[in-house]
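Service request form, structural biology core

Requester: graduate student, group of Dr. S.
Request type: structure prediction, single chain
Budget code: on file
Notes: please return the result as structure tokens.

Sequence provided:
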Amino acid sequence: MSRFAPFVAAAGIITSAVAVAAAGPASAQFYKGRTINMVVNYGAGGNTDIEARIFARHLPRHIPGSPTIIVTNRPGAGGLIGLNHMGSGAVPADGMTFAFFTVGPVATIVKDPALKVNLADFAFIGGLSQHQVAYGRKDIAPGMKRPADMAKAVEVFGAGSSPASPRDVALKLTLGLMGVKHRVVTGFRSSNDINLAILRNESQFTTSSQPGYQSQAKPQLIEPGIAMPFWYYQLSAPDGGLLKNASLEAEGVRGFADVYKEAHGKMPSGPRYEAFLVLNDIASVMLRSVMMPPGTPQEPVEILRKAFMALADDEQFRNEYMALVKMLPELVSPKDGMRILARLRQIDPAAVEVIREAVGTK
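Core staff response, request fulfilled:
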């Protein structure tokens, strides 16, 4: 039984002091007086974009030469348009462009033909780990009073990004585990668009990263009483159990497995649940990835890696991130990020088949 528990425990999430090897004799003149382009693969105003712009404001302080960083959005197809653009050769691999992407492992796992590039070919700079929170309208028939009531729902209309996005696949897997008839409408360009659809009752249910939930879903939907949190996706623990998110639990948001147990009287299990755990472990730990195009010279790669990790101890960065995102950043080191990417080649074939079925490619 594949659980990926040891890999999640060793993911190298960093929240305070960070020990990073020196980048080597990188020239302080490489970026002096220059402009770097940061490409974001989701639309302006969404969770990914908001976090990317925080990084763009603070990263130059840690780059020798203090270059300017401008942000360009290339949304669409659940982030694949931006990802394909960065890895196709259309972007010069000269160190003057890097990506701040929401990276979904599904396309790589199922060998989606829409993905034209190999994630392992990119130069990984750093990442952000975040939990996912599921929330939906309270008036889902016959009426939702508590999260476990989801098991009684007549039908749920979910909202997603693309058939191969972790959001869409996890929605299908968890709602299926709950035994709920459901349909997921896909193609939304940002969480902000999805929240607007839920507000208008054009959709009912979705998930968002914890920062997106705190900064957008709560003020737009939860606090006005339109929607409620149902559960968050827990990561696997080294002992085979599940890790709890203390901040979400303090708000009364419980893990999916606990809500499932309340509704069904037992813990979730089986191939569908195992596939969900594998997908969630990878997707959550690598939710935001900072990367440079394949073939980028080592000098700018090491400069940006060192600058990225220096943000862990940057009080101005941490304060603004906390103010806008409502939680402290959890940085993933380059070494651990590359190890996680390598894990994509080691997923149990049975889990791959379940994910293929959820995507619709089986």
